[in-house]
Amino acid sequence: MQPVRGTKDLIGEAFRRHHHVIETARHVTTLYGLEEWSTPIFEATGVFARSLGETSDVVSKEMYTFEDRGGDSVTLRPENTAGICRALVSNGLTQGGLPRKVFYAGPMFRYERPQKGRYRQFHQIGAEILGAAEPLADAEVIACGWQILQHLGIDDGVVLEINTLGDAPSRDAYRAALVAYFTQHRDKLSADSQVRLEKNPMRILDSKDAGDKALVAGAPTIHEHLTPEAAAFYAAVKRHLDLFGVPYRDNPRIVRGLDYYSHTAFEFVTDRLGAQGTVMAGGRYDGLVQEMGGPPTPCVGWAAGVERLAELLAETPEASPPVAVIPVSPAEEGPAIALTQTLRASGVPAEIAYKGNLKKRMERANRTGAQAAVILGEREVAEGVVVVRNLSDGTQERVGMPGLLSALAAAGVVDAMLEQVVEGLEEGLGPDPEDAED
Fold first, then answer.
1. Is Ligase tagged as a keyword (predicted)?
2. C-alpha angle with apex 104: 103 to 109, nearest 5 degrees?
């Protein structure tokens, strides 16, 4: 049996990279006052059909949609902003306590051609500020994303590109200009873009077709159609980005095609991932909560692909090396278990060898990646000492309980933070020998 095409197992280094990205994002978003939400991985199909648009590739070609046994149409989530907004409404959180600042992490699903950095089950992290209309919210959520990239050490070569989608009057004027422009070149548009011209012309700007891209290069930009209010909002976002110390550049071709998107749109891009150059993207979506049945609620946020961020990491995070606790025979298993549990309770990763003679148990310790082994034989238990063997260089010494942490620290396993373990070790294994009092 093999994993389904477009999915992959996360094991060893792959998992550590994946976990490091999520935990780093979790840490940084906490600094920004975000709370973590977890929503179901499948929703009623309408949640995504309404939020992503019937003409989008995701809805028309890529969603995993099926009818459940009750006859309801459900869809594995292709993204999570819609689910977050649905949760805000269905949990009655729009009536008070706004803004809500939310972080999420989890798997998403899209049926598309698998390629490097793109899977049918992939993972995203995301940040949303729900219920804040001010341009400061746009700048802060972008700054949060930028700080995550910095903490991951992958900000070098990543560029923030921003644009504005304006307000409703700005977009109405812009749509009219796009329709006029693309109608002149209708016969050169791809079949998909000819449909978009009738239903949602701004989506033509997102086309991946080479012929469409050539036409898009000459299309008008929204900046020529902004109302004074929309222009002032965009200027304020950029001013706040300067205050946060986030570098950026204007890209008038970044768009979102649906009516509930407004004002800021942005992408963090890099040339280190080939064609898949976007590592984080988002914008303001002031009409989405209302689309879910809630009141008008201004929102802004972003999402980022965990696989792409993990691929950019310069190094794979090291696994925490355990301490291998090795009883020489079954008679020492009781004290060995007590020591193992005391170490674990104090925050020290520890493994106990289950069976075999001393040689086999030491071989097992090496396979686990342990840097040190703590060996207990009949004599050691009687004297209240242990043998600490450094598995990196093979040196070993007999130490009393008060000296155990120092010996483990010398082997690179624990640090000074764990000095508080000593008391627990003393209690767990009884009195110390007199010659170890120093």
1. yes
2. 150
